[in-house]
C-alpha cells in the first residue's frame, strides 16, 4: 500500500487544502484514488466525444477546457473544473492562467486556419503548452492529452496512443514521456510527436 497522496517524483503534489477536496470517503489508498480517477476520466472522455462532429473552435476555449476537467475529475475532487490558485513546481503563476489559456487557444485557432503546422503537430503543441501552463491543481497531463486527442479527432485524425500505456504510473514509459516534454520545453517538439504516436 502506498500513501494516498504519494505522487511520482516528477508529478506535481497537491497542497493540503486541495487534498481536503477529495469527495469519496472510500478512497483510502493510492490504488483507490487511481481507480476512481480513471473511472471518472472514462466518463469525461465519453461526454466529450458524445458531441460527435465537434468543431475545433468548440474545443478551443476556456469554458470547454474547464467543463472537460470537471467531467474528468468532478466525481473525485471538489475543485475539479476550476483553475488552481496555488503555486506549483511547474507552470505559470496562478493569476496568469486565464490570460495564457485564452492566448493559447487563439494561437491554436490561428495555426489551424493558416495551416502553420501539420494537424498532429498542432494537437501536440496544444498538449505541450497546456502542460506548461498547468492550469489545474491535478490532472493536467491527463486533461491535456485528452484535449489533444479531441482536437486531432476534430481535425480528421486518429487519437494518439501516448506510448500505449498508463502514464500515471512510474516507470520507463513515464520517463520517456517526461523526457519528451522536456525536449519540447527546449523547442524540440519531435520527441513528443514521436512519443504521442508510439
Structural class: mainly alpha
Mean pLDDT: 92
Structural domains: how many: 1
The total beta strand count reads 0
Which term fits the overall shape? globular
Per CATH, which architecture?
Orthogonal Bundle
Intertermini distance: 31 Å
List the helices and strands in order. HHHHHHHHH
What does this structure look like?
This protein has helices spanning 16-19, 30-50, 56-59, 62-73, 97-114, 119-133, 140-154, 172-185, 190-196. It is an all-alpha fold and 198 residues long. The chain has one domain (28-196): Fic-like fold. The longest helix has 21 residues, at 30-50.
Please name the defining characteristics of this protein.
198 residues, mainly alpha, globular, single chain, Fic-like fold
What would a concise description of this structure say?
This protein has 198 residues and is mainly alpha-helical. It is built from nine helices and no strands.
Layout of helices and strands:
Blueprint: H1 16-19, H2 30-50, H3 56-59, H4 62-73, H5 97-114, H6 119-133, H7 140-154, H8 172-185, H9 190-196
Amino acid at each position: 500500500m502506498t500513501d494516498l497522496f504519494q505522487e511520482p517524483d516528477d508529478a506535481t503534489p497537491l497542497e493540503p487544502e486541495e487534498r481536503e477536496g477529495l469527495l469519496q470517503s472510500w478512497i483510502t489508498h493510492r490504488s483507490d484514488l487511481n481507480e476512481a480517477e480513471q473511472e471518472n476520466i472514462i466518463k469525461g472522455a465519453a461526454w466529450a466525444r458524445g458531441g460527435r462532429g465537434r468543431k475545433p473552435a468548440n474545443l478551443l476555449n476556456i469554458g470547454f477546457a474547464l467543463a472537460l476537467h470537471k467531467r474528468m475529475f468532478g466525481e473525485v475532487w471538489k475543485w475539479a473544473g476550476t483553475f488552481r490558485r496555488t503555486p506549483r513546481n511547474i507552470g505559470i503563476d496562478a493569476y496568469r492562467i486565464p490570460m495564457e489559456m485564452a492566448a493559447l487557444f487563439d494561437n491554436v485557432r490561428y495555426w489551424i486556419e493558416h495551416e502553420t503546422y501539420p494537424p498532429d503537430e498542432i494537437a501536440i503543441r496544444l498538449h505541450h503548452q497546456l502542460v506548461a501552463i498547468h492550469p489545474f491543481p491535478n490532472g493536467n497531463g491527463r486533461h491535456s492529452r485528452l484535449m489533444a486527442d479531441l482536437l486531432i479527432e476534430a481535425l480528421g485524425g486518429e487519437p494518439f496512443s501516448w506510448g500505449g500505456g498508463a502514464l500515471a504510473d512510474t516507470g520507463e514509459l513515464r520517463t520517456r514521456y517526461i523526457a519528451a516534454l522536456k525536449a519540447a520545453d527546449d523547442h524540440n517538439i519531435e520527441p513528443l510527436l514521436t512519443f504521442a504516436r508510439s
